[in-house]
Design brief:
This protein is mainly α. It is built from eleven helices and no strands.
């Protein structure tokens, strides 16, 4: 009996987590489609949950959409951490994160559109690519790999390049995303002060398999 009693709250928490996740995913789908004024009823129907369940988790559509963007940023950041965890060189870490992010626009188009639709959040958030790029730039300066007078201004350029590249890849589906991303990454490394031959070599290194 005691075991059954202790299991009940766990089942309830898991059910609540699934409901919240379904709402967040539905919101991401709507954001990616540009449907920012969708009624809450339409969102709950897409998530296959009741209207009452919505208000158990969120006070408004805007709060749900904020949570959806934050979730996308957290997923993006967690993926970058996982795929760069064994690298020591900040220039390599920066390049690998940017190259992987560029390739995600085609491989995860919904996630990409959520991030691009909220460009300011992508550029200034403490989650996702921005804080990791800022960390890698500062580490690169500290170790002598980068020569940057103002890391914050460098981040403005990096964030702008990331956003514009993503939009370009959506607008030009015929363009080779890997080639374009690697060229932009190489240009950014040069801008950060890395010698051209090193920047070129780093951007030709093999990447982890995103499909895995």
């Amino acid at each position: 009996m005691a075991q059954q009693t202790s299991d009940a709250p766990n089942r309830l928490e898991r059910r609540k987590a699934r409901t919240r996740a379904a709402l967040v995913h539905a919101a991401q789908t709507f954001i990616a489609a540009g449907k920012f004024n969708a009624p809450i009823l339409e969102l709950t129907q897409a998530a296959d949950v009741g209207m009452g369940s919505f208000y158990n988790h969120f006070d408004s559509r805007e709060q749900l959409f904020d949570a959806a963007v934050e979730d996308a940023l957290e997923r993006h950041g967690a993926l970058l951490d996982e795929l760069t965890q064994n690298l020591d060189d900040p220039a390599h870490v920066f390049a690998q994160s940017f190259r992987l992010t560029g390739r995600l626009h085609r491989r995860s188009p919904e996630l990409s559109r959520v991030l691009l639709t909220n460009g300011l959040a992508l550029a200034t958030s403490d989650k996702g690519l921005a804080p990791r790029a800022r960390r890698d730039i500062e580490d690169g300066v500290h170790t002598g790999r980068f020569s940057v007078g103002d890391p914050e201004l460098a981040m403005v350029i990096v964030a702008g390049a990331a956003l514009c590249l993503g939009q370009l890849l959506h607008n030009q589906p015929e363009r080779d995303d890997a080639e374009a991303t690697d060229q932009v990454t190489e240009d950014l490394l040069r801008m950060l002060g890395l010698p051209g031959d090193q920047a070129h070599e780093i951007c030709r290194r093999p990447l982890p398999d995103l499909n895995a």
